[in-house]
Amino acid sequence: MATPAEALYLWDWQADGIVLQTTGDPDIPFIHVASLRDRWYGVDWNLSQPYAYVVFDPVARTQTLLGGPTNSGDEYGNGNWIQHPADLDDQWALFSHFEGLAPSGSGWLAPAGWYTLRPTGSGGCWAIRTPPSRRPPITRLRRSCGSRRTAAT
Fold first, then answer.
1. How many Cα atoms occupy the beta-carbon half-sphere of 58 within 13 Å?
2. Residue 61: CA atoms inside 13 Å, Cβ hemisphere, count?
3. pLDDT in tens, 9-34
4. How far is CA 97 from CA 7, 25, 102, in A?
5. What are residue 88's phi and psi, to 5 degrees?
6. What is the torsion angle, in degrees rounded to the nearest 10, for the CA atoms of residue 99, residue 101, residue 104 and residue 108?
7. Distance CA 36, CA 38 (A)
8. CB of 58 within 8 A of CB of 10?
9. Does residue 145 carry a pLDDT above 80?
10. Which residue has the higher pLDDT, 85 or 141?
C-alpha cells in the first residue's frame, strides 16, 4: 500500500473494504496529520511556500484546502484526543515546526512557534522563546496570528 506515496486508505470495518482512497503525492499528502473526531488536519506541501492547511473528512469523503500560510513546511500536527463539539469543524489541532528552531524562508505563520488550527477560521499562535538552553515557560502571543490566514482558492 505504498503506492501512491503519502495517500490515505480508509478501511470501513462494516463494509469490509476501503471506502476512501486519496491520491497522495504529488497531490495532497496525508502525512504528519492531526487526528481528531471524524477529521484529520494537515498541510499540502505540494503547493508553493508557505503552503496551505487541509482537512480530510472521512464522513463526507473529501479533502478540502483551508488556506494558508502554514507555520512550516516541516510541521507536525497534533490532535490525538477526542473532542465533542456540536460542530465537528469546531475542533482544534496544534501544529508545530520540527527540524530546528524555525523554518527557513519567509511568509510563514508563527515560525518557531505553535499554531492552533480550526477549520472555522479561528486559531491562535503560541510561542516558545529562545535560546533553548534558557527557555522559559510557554507564553501566549499577545496578538493573534489567525488574521494572517487566507482562504484557499
1. 15
2. 9
3. 989 899 899 988 888 888 999 999 99
4. 22, 21, 7
5. -60, -25
6. 110
7. 6
8. yes
9. no
10. 85
